[in-house]
Structures are given as C-alpha cells and as structure tokens.
Amino acid sequence: MELGTYLHDKRIIVENSLKDVFSSFKNTPGILRDAMEYMLFSNGKRIRPILAIAACEANKKPSDDLLPLACSIEMIHTYSLIHDDLPSIDNDDIRRGRPTCHKVFGDAVAILAGDALLTEAFRILSDNRYTENISPRTLKKIIFEIASAAGADGMVGGQVMDILYDGKEGTKNILNYIHLHKTTALIRASVRVGAIAGGSRASELKRFTKYAECIGLAFQIMDDILDAEGDEELVGKRLKKDTGKQTYIKHYGIVTSKIKLEQLIDEAIGSIESLGDRAKILSDLARYLGNRAT
Amino acid sequence: MELGTYLHDKRIIVENSLKDVFSSFKNTPGILRDAMEYMLFSNGKRIRPILAIAACEANKKPSDDLLPLACSIEMIHTYSLIHDDLPSIDNDDIRRGRPTCHKVFGDAVAILAGDALLTEAFRILSDNRYTENISPRTLKKIIFEIASAAGADGMVGGQVMDILYDGKEGTKNILNYIHLHKTTALIRASVRVGAIAGGSRASELKRFTKYAECIGLAFQIMDDILDAEGDEELVGKRLKKDTGKQTYIKHYGIVTSKIKLEQLIDEAIGSIESLGDRAKILSDLARYLGNRAT
After folding, report:
1. Residue A97: inside a domain
2. pLDDT score of B268 more than 80
3. Nearest residue to A292 (alpha-carbon basis) of A22, A30, A50
4. Residue A75 belongs to what domain range?
C-alpha cells in the first residue's frame, strides 16, 4: 500500500477510536471535557499511534485490539503538549495553527486537562471495555512500557532538562539526554507496544526498538531543523523560538544536523531490513518522517 | 492492637516502601527527583495507603504484596496536592507546615514533578519488581480502580468543579459532586484496592465500598470544619482560605456539618459491622478520622 493512503486511512481509524474512548466519559465537567477534546482533536499527525499500529501489523497481526492502547499513547502525547505550552514552561500561544489550550481555557483548566488525559490513558489501558482481547500479562507489559517512557526517567525527565538548560551553554551529552528522553522515549514505546501486541519475539523486538530509537531521534532533529528553517504556517506553531534551547542546530550546525538525520533514517530502515516485505510501511514511515515539512 | 500503634507502625512501613520505590530512579534529573521527594516525604498522614493496608488485612491477608500499590496511591495523592497548590489553581504557599513545592522549585518543576509522580504511580503498578506476587488479572482491576478514581470522572473532575465554583453561589448538588469526586474517589479506591488485593468477594467488597464512601465524605467535611475552626500550626496550612469555596459549612452551617460528620462515621462503622473483629482497625480508623485535628 502507498504510504499516503496508509497514513490517511489509519488517521481516520485513530480519530474514530479516540472519539469512541471519549464517549465513555459520563460525569466529566463540560469544560474539562472540552479542554481535553480541544487539544486531542486538533489536527495532530497521530504519528505515535500509527507507529504502534504499523509495528503490530508488521507482525502480520491485525491491529484492531491494539487501537485503544495506541489511543492512550496519543492521549499521553497530547497531555505533554498542553503542559509544555503553559506560561511557566515553554509559554507557547499557538499549537497546530490554533491558540494553545491554556489560551482558550485558562491555565488552571489546562493543567487539569493535561492531568486528566494522562490519568485516563491508564484507565483505558486497564478498562475491560477496551482491552478484553489482550491478555492481562501482555497488558501489564504494555502499561509498564508506556509508563516508563512517559515518567521521571523518560519524557518528563527530558522535559525538565529541556527547561533547565534553556539559555545555558549545555553540552552534547545534555542535548543527547534531552532528545532521547523528551521525544524518543514515547516514540520508542509506541513502536515497542505495537510489536509486543503483535507478538514479536525478543530478537525481533530488539530490531523494532533500534528502528524506533533512530526515528525518535531523527524526529527531534527534524523538529530542530523545522524550528530554524520551517514555514510557520505549515508547522502550525511559532518558530525560531528555540534559540536558547539545546538543539542539534546549536551543537552541530545545520549541515551536520541534516547529515545526521539522513544517517538515522538509513539506520532505522537498515535495522528492520531482515523483516523483508513486512517492514515496508515502517521503512516508508521512516523516510516520511525524515522529509516532513509539518 | 491499639490504633495509635497501628498508625505509627504502618506509617513507617509505608515510608520505607516509598523510599524503596524511589531507589529505582536511576536517570532522573536531580531537581525533578528532589521536587518529587520534597512533597512525598513531607510529614503526610499516609491515610490512603494505611486504609488500603487495613482493608487488605481485614481479609486476614498479609499486606506485604500490597505495599507498593498502596504507595502508588500516595504518589497520586501527592501529585494532586502539588498541582492544587499552584498559583493558577489554589495558590497556596504553605502545605504540611512547609513552603509548597512550587515555592521551592518554581512552577515549571512543580508541574513536572506532579506529572512524574502521577506517571510513576502507574509504572510501579505495572513493574514486575514490585508486583510479581499479584496476578496480572487482579493488577488490571487495581489499575482500573485507581485510574478511574483519579481521572476526569473522579478526582480531576472534582478539582475542576472546585475551582469553577470558587466565589460562586453554588448548590448542594455542586457541593456534593465536588466532595464525592475531589476527595472521596481516591479514598474509596484506596479501601477497594486493599479489599480486592485481600481477596474480598463481591458482597464484602460492597460493604468496604460503603465504608469508604462514608469516611471519604466525612474526611472532606472534617477538612471544611478544620478550615473554619482549626489551628493553623497543627493543620500545617493556611486556614480560613476557603470562604469562596463550596464547603459543607457554607451550605449547611457548622452545627449541621458536625452532625453530618458524626452520622457518616457511624454509618461507616455500621457498614462493616458484620465483619466482626476483623473490622476493628477500620472502625477505629473511621472514629479517628472523625476526630482528627490535623
């Protein structure tokens, strides 16, 4: 299948699954639900759930049972955007071409909407309505995978270092810590969750993991490049804001960053080559992520 | 056993278990770990984990395997305090007799420390290091119980209504929604998690649940009474701050609130009477919570 069609189809499937999940909120205050939905249904690329689905399908396993789990990852990603945009963190007022969550609902509701999205992600992962076809043992592995990637030794740790070293000299080691934790950790978990749900054995899981680590880092380098050179309208957020941040551009320059990006995409594709035809979508996805303009 | 001794002993056990959990953070940025620990080890009463332990032990089952799960509830409670105290939410500067988390570490780190505590709670619930003696099926139930209580239809929903109706007229229905969600939900989950881990059958679980709902509501009414009449030094936070909030005192007056509190404690004790001697600690705990000064 051509990647464009695949992305389009899967995006619709993910959106519908997210809507289905939201229909299970019965007693949620209206403004809280609105704030969660505002950010969750705001033209996101759905890269993480689609990676999970593609990794599952690369095992020749249908991804229907995985869908709510993939949605829970998207909810965690969304909460992290809401909190990152807050005035006391990155202070961003535009995201995906619209005012950020706190600009519309106020800081308090934005903080709580993020908290709710994060918590509800784990509710969905453990809710029989959505997970009855996945064994509790596999589910436990998946919850551990996601929580570890999103927590203090994962995404949140990366975000803390990101703000701590904003405006500071920094080192390549610091940059590496930030990129591996802030962005790569959850992308890595997305692919691994898909592979685990798809039934990958240890040796294959290793290949998927290597692939995910390469595209995760490439994704963040591309973000750094887009911040320096991208089109604000296409990207949908304010650019050239990261001048004080630890970026690849700052530590390696734009030319070397682009070379590193190419290398990572090649490495990602190489690491799943042995899967043969089964790897086609994932390989195409890697190339797409290395060339994206949004 | 006398309740004072029981509380003292269990508190030490919970503290040690929390310290053990924290030893598993290896790559966490120092300031993030410090902020999490600052609030987590700040002279909390540990009511929620102790309720879980007591409900488990009321089933004549040892609570060792439950301990890390009980700690995860305390971590969720702690994250909620950190976020509630933020300037854009309740704007509190003193908690448990010390400056609040954001006063010491800044708003950004406080938000992220809360996020990390919430996420790590679910990591612990799914981490084989801490949960290998609990069946994945039971664990799934427990994770669902905790996530549902803490999420959009639980604690976070209650908190949103609490700030939404701050300074507004409100109704008894609104007050009821806030108290049942903001405070009762997680206390209810604590007791239920303990009972589930202890192997309670459906009919007994119902009794534990009724008990928990009564003491949860009583706990919040006591909070309202302490805010109106308590000793700031003993309570460890600024009082008489809730004048604009939806409180029992506002809607029922102090005398009726105290009567309601007594009734709830009696109802809590009555609902577990059929357990006989096994209910002693839980009954004593209910009485203690209805008379606390801190």
Report:
1. yes
2. yes
3. A50
4. 3-289
Measure the CA–CA gap between A143 and B119, rounded to whole angstroms: 10
The stretch B134-149 carries a mean pLDDT of 98
φ, ψ dihedrals at A98, nearest 5°: -130, 165
Alpha-carbon torsion, ordered B232, B235, B238, B239, to 10 deg: -80
Tokens representing A196?
A: 């685990």
What pLDDT score does A142 carry?
Answer: 98
Q: Considering only CB atoms, which chain B residues are within 8 Å of A26?
A: 153
Cβ–Cβ under 8 Å, residues A150 and B119: yes
Q: Looking at the complex, does the CB of residue B106 fall below 8 Å from at least one CB of chain A?
A: yes
CA triple A153-A218-A7, angle to 5 deg: 105
B263 interfaces chain A, CB cutoff of 8 Å: no
CATH code, B121:
1.10.600.10
Residue A225 domain-assigned (yes or no): yes
- Distance, CA of A63 to CA of A70 (rounded, Å): 9
Q: How many CB atoms lie within 10 A of CB B96?
A: 15
Prediction pTM value: 0.97
The answer to whether residue B25 neighbours chain A at the CB level (below 8 Å) is yes
Number of domains in chain A: 1
B110, B78 Cβ separation under 8 angstroms:
no
- Which residues, at least 6 apart from A21, have a Cβ–Cβ distance to it below 8 Å? A68, A71, A75, A120, A124, A130
In terms of CA atoms, which chain B residue is nearest residue A125?
B144
How high is the pLDDT of residue B27? 87
pLDDT in tens, B10-51: 999 999 999 999 888 888 999 999 999 999 999 899 999 999
pLDDT cut 70: percent of chain B above it: 100
Contact A120, A151 (CB under 8 A): no
pLDDT per residue as tens digits for the range A189-200 = 999 999 999 999
Give a yes or no: residue B122 inside a domain. Answer: yes
Backbone angles phi, psi at B99, to 5 degrees: -55, 145
Query: ∠ CA B271-B276-B280 to the nearest 5 degrees?
Result: 80
Residue in chain B nearest A109 by alpha carbon: B160
Confirm whether A294 is domain-assigned: no
Q: Are B215 and B286 in contact (CB under 8 A)?
A: yes
B27 neighbors A155 (Cβ within 8 angstroms): no
